[in-house]
Every structure is written in structure tokens, then in C-alpha cells.
């Protein structure tokens, strides 16, 4: 059996200890790094009389400005929904509107820390309908500035009568 000098053994133990001690920090840094990286999603806007918009949009969470609601953060941190900024459905709608030259408007509700989408391409929900937000075929359980999107998600804003 070969003997390892004590000095080499101490160095190996110290190196292993440093590696193990730093492993959780490295893993944690990778988990939270760039959570607001742009993602590509498919966005569909379905009005009462048919399709208003469909296309692939590259988006990430950002400040959104509407005529009725003003300028507010729309990056998933709204209402404490996510600990860091993430891409969101309303940010995707805003990006599509700016890039594809159509309008949308929404009222800001401070109590919800989110927008209510009121009008898209001059089609208003009004008192008889609302713009439902769904991702991958399921209505979002939180507002459009709170729901985290992932690459490849299918986002839909659908005019829905009461």
C-alpha cells in the first residue's frame, strides 16, 4: 500500500472542502441568472369577429405604458408573483403592438399591481366582454404582468363575452 504524505492529503481535503462549500453558491447563481432573458412565444389575439393578430414575438418583462393606465413595471415581480423579473403575457402583447404597429390600452389597478387589458386593435371588452389571457390553452391564474412565460409558450388574448 502506498502512503500519501500528510501534506498532500491535507491539500486534497482542503480542495474538496472548498469545492463542496462553493457548489451550492454556484448552483444558486445559475438558477437565478438572467431569469428575464428574452423568450420567443406565439401570440394570438382573437376578437369577437375573428383573428386580430397571430405571430411569434420575442419578449421579456419590462415597463409598459398605456394611455389609460400610465407607465408601470410588467415583469412578473408585480404583486410579489416572482422573486425576479421574467417575461410576461402583457409584456408580450406590448412588444407585439410596438413591433407590428397596432394599438392596445389597459387600465392600471394598483390594488392588483397589474393592468386590465381593455382594448386591442380598437376592439374593446367594455361592459359585455373582457380580454381573457391564456397560456398554452389555460387561463392564467394571475394577471398578465404576473404570469411567467417560458420559451415556446402559446399566449392568447381572447375577447370573451360575459
UniProtKB/TrEMBL annotation:
The keyword Transferase does not apply. It comes from the Bacteria. Residues 120-160 form the Transcobalamin-like C-terminal domain. Gene3D superfamilies: 2.170.130.30. Keywords: Signal. Residues 1-29 form the signal peptide. This is DUF4430 domain-containing protein.
Amino acid at each position: 500500500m502506498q502512503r500519501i504524505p500528510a501534506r498532500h492529503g491535507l491539500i486534497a481535503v482542503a480542495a474538496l472542502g472548498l469545492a463542496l462549500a462553493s457548489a451550492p453558491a454556484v448552483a444558486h447563481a445559475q438558477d437565478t441568472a438572467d431569469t428575464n432573458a428574452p423568450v420567443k412565444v406565439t401570440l394570438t389575439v382573437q376578437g369577437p369577429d375573428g383573428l386580430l393578430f397571430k405571430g411569434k414575438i420575442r419578449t421579456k418583462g419590462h415597463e409598459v405604458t398605456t394611455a389609460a393606465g400610465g407607465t408601470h413595471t410588467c415583469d412578473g415581480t408585480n404583486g410579489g408573483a416572482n422573486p425576479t423579473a421574467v417575461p410576461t403575457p402583457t409584456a408580450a402583447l406590448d412588444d407585439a403592438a410596438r413591433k407590428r404597429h397596432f394599438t392596445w390600452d389597459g387600465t392600471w389597478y394598483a390594488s392588483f399591481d397589474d393592468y386590465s387589458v381593455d382594448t386591442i386593435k380598437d376592439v374593446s371588452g367594455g361592459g359585455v366582454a373582457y380580454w381573457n389571457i391564456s397560456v398554452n390553452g389555460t387561463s392564467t391564474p394571475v394577471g398578465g404582468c404576473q404570469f411567467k412565460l417560458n420559451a415556446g409558450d402559446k399566449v392568447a388574448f381572447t375577447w370573451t363575452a360575459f
